[in-house]
Every structure is written in C-alpha cells, then in structure tokens.
Amino acid sequence: MRSRGASSAPPGTDQARGLRHWWLDLSLRAKGLIVVAVPLIALMGIISANLVLQQSESNERNISTNARNLADAANQVLTAAVNAETSMRGYALSRDPVFLAPYTLTLTQIGAERTALRRAAVAAGVGRQQQTVDATTGQELAELAQLRSAISDGPSAQNLLPALLNGKTTMDLLRRQVADLAAGPTALVTVQHDKLTTLQTRIEVLDIAGLVLALLAGLAGVALFSSGIASRVSVNAENARRLGEGLPLEPIIPAGDEIGRLADSHLRAEQLLARRAAELTEARDTAVRATQAKNSFLSSTSHELRTPLNAILGFTQLLQLSELSEEDSDGVDRILAAGRHLLALINELIDIARIESGDLGLSLEPVLVRPLIEECCRLMAPMAAERSIRIIRDCAHPALAAFVDRQRLAQILVNLISNAVKYNHKGGSITISCAEEGTGQVTVTVTDTGPGLAADDLERIFVPFERLGAERTAVEGTGIGLPLARALTEAMKGHLTVSSVLGQGAAFTVSLTRAPDLLHVPKPSPAPARRAVPPRVPAGAGLSILSIDDNPANLEVIARYLRGRPGTRLLSAISGRAGLDCAVRDVPDVILLDLHLPDLQGDEVLNELKADPATAGIPVIVLSADASRGVIHRLLAGGAFAYLTKPIELAELGGLLDTCAATRAQDQQPQPAIRIAPA
Amino acid sequence: MSAQEPAKGDPMNHGMLYIEDDDNNISLARALLKRRPQIELQVAMNGRDGIQAAIDKRPALILLDNRLPDATGSEILRELASAPATAAIPVVILSSDADEFINQLIAEGATEAVPKPFDIHEFIAMLDRYFP
After folding, report:
1. How far is B64 from chain A (nearest CA, A)?
2. Closest residue in B to A359 (Cα–Cα)
C-alpha cells in the first residue's frame, strides 16, 4: 500500500494547508456554487450600485425640475404683477382706458398663475415662502384696484402720487420675495448635483473594482476546476484504467469530496482485488497440492500393492518350475491364480479411482472400429477355444470410426468378450457387431448365448463387487470389470448398456461418438515385394530414428520393436515443437511423425521440416489412424516419405526402415514408398 | 532421447547392475539369475551407490527401480546420461509404478521397461536379449 499524498503536499503554512484541506473536503456541489457565486455576487454588487445611482439621478432631476418650475411660476406671477402695475401707471398718466387692457388681462390670468405657483412651491417644499409671495401679490392687486378707483373718480396727478409710490414699494417687496423663493431650490439643485457627481465617481470605482473582482473570481474558478478538479479526475480515470489492468495505483491526495471518495473506492477495490488474487492463488495452490497428493497417493498405492506381489508371483512361478508333488503343484497354481486375481483387482481399482478423480489421461482420437474388434477377438480366441465357444464378427462397415482412446476401448471390449466367454454355456457362441447409430453414434454390441439376466439384475451388474452369486461358482472375476468398463465408456463420452432375456443370453452395447469415416487400409500381404529388395542393414551401421508422438504407448511399441533391430537409436519428442528442435539438433536418419500432437498439426511439422534445408532430406513416415485419402495425398505431396495406419504393422514399419537404411547407405534420397489403398 | 544399444557390442561384458532397495525383489532377481549363471549381478540399494557402481564396473545392462530412498528413476537416468562412462549403457526400468510413470521414464531415456509384478518368463526373455 502506498502513502496517500500527505508527503506530496507542497510545503506551506498551517493556514494554507488548512485552507487546502477545507477546499479539498468541500463537496463538488459546494465548490461549484462557490466558483459560480463569487463573480455573481460581484456582478450583483455592481448592478445594485448602479441602481442606487440611477435612483439618485432621478431624485436630482425631480428636484431640479421642481426648482425650475417654481422659478418659472414665480416669474410668471411677478411678470403679471409688473404688467398690471405698468398698465395702471399708464392709465394714471393718460386716463385713457386703452392702457387698462394689460391690467384686465392680468386679472383674468393671475389666478391660475398663483395656483401654479402654489403647486410648484408645495412640490419644492417652500410653501411658507409662497404664502408670503401670494399675500404680497394679493396686496399689490388690492392697491392697484384702489388706484384704479381713485383715477376713475378724477383726482389730480398730485393726489395719485402717494398711491403710486405705495404700489412701487409693494412691487419691490414682491420682487425680493420672488427672488428669495426661487433662490432656495436653485441652491438645492447645485448641492444635489455635487452630491450626484461624488456618487457617480464612487460607483465608477465600484464598477471597475467589481468587474476586476468578478473577472479574477471567474479566472480562479477556471483555474481551480482545470488544474485541481480536472487533474484529480484524470488521475482517478488513470487509476480506474490501472485497476482494470491490475497495475498498482498512482498515489492520490486524500480528500473528502466526491473525487476523494472515488479515489478511496479505487484504493479499496485495489485492496479487494489483491485479497481476492491472494485467495485465488492460495486456492489454486491448494488444488494443485491436492491433485499432487491424490496423484502421489494413487501412484504410491499402485506401487505399494504391486511390489509385494512381484515377490509373491515371481517366487511362485519359480516354484512352479521346480519338481513338486501333485498336491504342492496344485497349491502353487492356486497361489499364482489368486495372486494374479489380486493384481487384476488392484489395476482395475486404480483405474476406477483415476476415473473418479478425473485423472485418467485419455487420448481421444478417431479409431477404426473393425480392426480393433478383430484385434480383441484374436486376443480372446484362446480363452474362447478352451470352452468351445465360437466368436462371430459382424461388422459390415470397414471405414467406421469412433472418437475414443484406442487402448481403453480395447480394454472395454476385452472385458465384455471375456465376460461373454465366462458367462456362457460351453459350446455357445458370441457375436460382436458394430453399426452406425443415427448420425453421431457408433455402437459395438457383444451378444452371448449364456443364461442371461433377470430384469432386476440388469443394473446390479454395474455395481462394484456385485457378482450375482458368481463368487460361489468357479467363474473367475474381480467384480469390478463391468463397473470399470462402464466408467471408461462414460469417460469417453459414451454409454454402456445391457439388455437380456432370461435364458437366452445377454447383449452389452457400447455407444460411442462417431468420427468421420477413415480410409480403410488393408494389411499388407505377408511378403510385400519391396521388402525383399533392400538388404538388411549391416550391424553397427544402424539408423537413428526420431519419434514425434505424444502417446507414450505408441513410443513403447516402437521402442520394443526397435530392440530387435541392431544398432538403431531411438530419439523421442512428445510435442511438435520439441520434435522440430530435436530434428534440427540431432538430424536423425528417419522421422516417425504422429498427426495428432498437442501443440502443432502433423502437417505443420512436416512443412517446417521440409522448409529447413538441414532437415528437408530426412525421410518422414507419417503415422495416423484417421487420415483421409485427401490428407494422405496432401502429406505425400508435401514431402512425406510414407504413411502408416495405426495400429502400426511392425513388419511394415521394418520394411520402410530397411528402405531408408539402404538408401542412406547408398547416400541417396529414398524414393517415396507410397501405399494407397483402394477406397 | 533414448540410447538403443543392446550390449551385443561387447560379448565379454557379462556385468549387470540392479539398483533396487526391496530385499524380496533382489532375492527374486538372484533366484532367477541362477538360470542365467553367466550374468554377473551387482546390486546397489540406493541411487548414489548405483551411479557409483555403474561408473566403476561399467556393466552391460542396468536394471533400475523407480523409487529409491535417495533418488527417483528420472534423476538417476539423468545422472547416468550425463556421465560419459555410463551414457551408452542400456537401462531397463523395473517398476511397480503406474504406466504413465513408466512411459515417462521411457520418454526420458530409459531403453525399456518391465512392469512389476512381472512374468518371470518375460524377465528371462528380456535378459536373453541383452546377454545372448
């Protein structure tokens, strides 16, 4: 487990570290809110400051308008009063009523103008001063009305003078009052204007500061997201990938937010995976140990049981060879028979144990059925002859093949035929037939003419050591032959069944997986002409032979055969690759090549051998049970020297080896010895 | 790889080495060899003695048990094949082990195998092939 970030944090003050932790622990939602809110608040500040400014401007405009209105209204009232007074003076001098026209007009208009002035004054907040102006206006109008009456009564100009002077005084008063009235609001406008200017300056500063702040906050947000969150997310993504590929994780700074939790999950997943991997390794090791223990137990059991039997059977056989009384000789025979029985039992029990542990090591390949049946019949013929039992073979289809382990199928058939001999009437018969069953099956049936089986016993015979009373008779048997035969059949994905009519014999049927028909190769005539041609190899000038075959049983057969040929040297490889290596290294005189190899196809091996100048000249004899005519042609065209059918006819192999040895002695390439059977 | 050279090359060599730790099997071999008195039997009861005896005596044939107190058949086969003095001597496996173990030894270079328990006639026939 790696350290988590504390050491990788940049050095800084406690405060900075605290702030960093505070920020890292904030949830993504809060971080997003902060990043968005900071510029937003700044913008809102700017907007509200502007609103305040607008409000103030609007106030100022109102105040100015009111002041202007007041001044206008006051001047109108003053102008009207001045016009009225001027008009009255003219009339006083001329006594001509024409001069009274402006006065009369003033009288009709001044009411409205005074009302307008009152409203403007109320709006500007100077009502009291307006009342003074209005009172003075009223007094002026009253004095003018008095003057007009006096003029109409006709007094002299001297008599009118005091009234005129009086009017002038009132008029001057009115002028002063009007000036005073307009002065207040006008001054206020100036003050307000100054205030507004100040406010405007402040708001401009605020605007700029706010914009700068909002810009900075926005930049900071982008920086935090891109450099902080984005990089952390990408480290997490990288870690997720590494987790998927089982690599160690990159260190990550611990944090309480969602990304931090994601990182924690990755760490936990990594720990979990490591734990699971350790458990799996342990489980596998345990299984391997168990298998080894089981294999070792089987092999030890086999070894421990057979070792004493070797001494028992060996010394008994020696005794048998010596001069014994009839009684002793009978005893020795019984010891030998019992010992052999025990050996058969051990072998079959070990086979059953292997099948049960899935450890049988079958080598399934296409096998011709008819030759195998013939072989088994030949093997059992002496035993059948002893009891005068006839063996009838009934196999019409010469190319019929099944996908089986050849040795094991032979074991099954020998077991069934041996039973058919043992549990038969003396002088009876056994029929062995093979047939194709549907599309995918091959059946081999062994029928006897013995006493048969009751329906109840049909399955009991497959139970180990269930011999249906035969143990009390002279019939030999281990009691596990049929259970083993059935287990072997099932291990080859087949079925073993029995049918019987009591008193009329029994029929045991092995159903197997069918393989494509094989080319049927008849056994060579006893003395093929070409065997006579090559001379026997001189002793000591033997061949070196490389066998490329994964089936040890085949190797054993060949090894045994070659013992009879002086000077031959056998090399073996159990895979195609090992065979090719060996061919290049040791350059044998002949190669025996099986077509069914665990790693390469036989024809691939052949092609590689022929492609390499170092090995191209070595004759290759192909061994197979299942090559079709087309395959054989292809192999021979590809440079194979000859083709032999399994099971190998050893005399035939010998003939081919003689040919190779002879041509080698003459230091020339052997002519292909092709043998193709009629279809 | 397997050396397939029966001892016919040197008809004067009648030495046979039996590497085996089971007394009964040794006695049986001695009893059987009374029928072939020309064969000079040497017995080694463990792998180390067996290899030493093979190097010292250079027998015409070695009989090898697969399970010895100090070595397996494979190990002994390897040792014998690696020493020039013994590489050419044919080795016959005498073993009570299951077939696949015996086949394995053949693949590893043993000349042949006689599975135990063996038929004495088969055993004698095997001897006759190496000591005609």
Report:
1. 14
2. B100
